[in-house]
Amino acid sequence: VYEEKHEQPKWTVHIAAPELITGNLARIDSFIPDPKVKTGTAVTADYWNSGFDRGHLVPSADMRWNVDALRATYYYSNISPQLADFNRGRWAELEDWTRRYVYYSKRRLFIATGPVLRDGLPTMQKPDRKNEVSIPELFWKVIADLDGDDSKAIAFVMSNAKLDLPVISYAVPVDSVEKLTGIDFFPALGDAVEERIERM
User: Fold this and answer.
1) At what angle do helices 191-198 and 174-181 cross, to 10 degrees?
2) First-to-last CA distance in the chain?
């Protein structure tokens, strides 16, 4: 879901499927506007010399098994500004952790990801930039294994900054991310299962 006001995704959802285990397509690094966003997305000039990485919310490495899916991760509708120390540090470790989980379990993970967007965030606006892209202070990720014998979920909230603690230090219950974002993550599950996994 694209948030025009902040020129980035409000949230993304994808399935990290076992196909990623054997996916070997290379990164393509061809960031482009998303043609399906009628109001227009951010563009390359918005990020150029901004001091921020173009942070994928659906990681390209999760889609290296299919060229169309891989290309779609480079749409600006999947990109948020992230500090390099964050994007290439603990956030990258968290993304890698989800892939390792799929590798060892051979099961799908359902993953929702997004920035915490609010009024008053600083922006990357400069005279040569087309769009006013907000700079999030926090990012969240909700991860669920619904295919195992015992459904389970975990969530993470991380500051858009250089983080020194281990990734697991940023784990929180899904319930807390629902309160932070106003998103109901698992409405299709039975109430008992939803309540149990969201408070883990």
Assistant:
1) 90
2) 26
Q: Which of 56, 108, 129, 141 is catalytic?
A: 56
Q: Is 6 helix (H, G, I), strand (E, B) or coil?
A: helix
Q: Is the pLDDT of residue 127 over 70?
A: no
Does the global pTM surpass 0.85? yes
pLDDT bucket at 113, cuts 50 / 70 / 90: very high
Mean pLDDT of 91-107: 97
| One-character DSSP codes across 149-179 | SS-EEEEEEEESS---S-GGGGEE-HHHHHH
CA geometry: angle 36, 37, 40, nearest 5 deg: 130
Q: Are 47 and 125 in contact (CB under 8 A)?
A: no
Closest CA to 143 of 187, 185, 84: 185
In the annotation, is 56 catalytic?
Answer: yes
Separation of alpha carbons 154 and 135, rounded Å: 25
- Rg value, the chain, Cα: 17
Specify the 3-state DSSP secondary structure of 13: strand
DSSP label at 1?
A: -
Half-sphere exposure of 195 (CA within 13 A, CB side): 3
pLDDT tens digit sequence for 36-69: 999 999 999 999 889 999 999 999 999 999 999 9
Residue identified by tokens 């990623």 is: 20
Q: 164 near 157, Cβ under 8 Å?
A: no
Are β-strands 152-159 and 53-56 bridged in parallel, bridged antiparallel, or unpaired? unpaired
